[in-house]
Amino acid sequence: MKLKSLIVAAAMLASTGAAMANCYEIIGCDDSDYFQRADLRQLSCQSLYEVRNLIYKQNGFCFSTQRAKQTFGNEGCSITKQSLVRLNAVERDNVATIAAVEKTMGCN
Q: Hey, how many other C-beta atoms are within 10 angstroms of the C-beta on 46?
């Protein structure tokens, strides 16, 4: 699946410590395009989880859950409290929209 490959590639790039946007064919770039719920509903729960948390990863967040640490790692992270992660307005909106879609889809 193309999206899965993009997510894996984005995760590897994000782990280099360089802050950069992740862009996806279906939904756009996470720091400059407002994600649409209809587009997000095309993604699996796992993909939604990965897209949402890559926004935090690229902004320096250190994950605490085992699932997130295994998926993203904590290399190069510097912020341990999620509320202190500096997201721009688009990123904040995208995180909230993804979380809302995850909730309506019954994602864990």
A: 13
Q: Where are the domains of the chain?
A: 2-105
Are 10 and 22 in contact by the 8 Å Cβ rule? The answer is: yes
pLDDT digits (tens, 9 = 90+) for 84-93: 999 999 999 9
Question: Phi, psi at residue 59, to the nearest 5°?
Answer: -105, 15
pTM of the predicted model, to two decimals? 0.81
Give residue 5's pLDDT.
46
| CA–CA distance, 61 with 28 (Å, rounded to integer) | 22
Inter-residue contact 11 to 20 (CB < 8 Å): no
- Beta carbons of 54 and 8 less than 8 angstroms apart: no
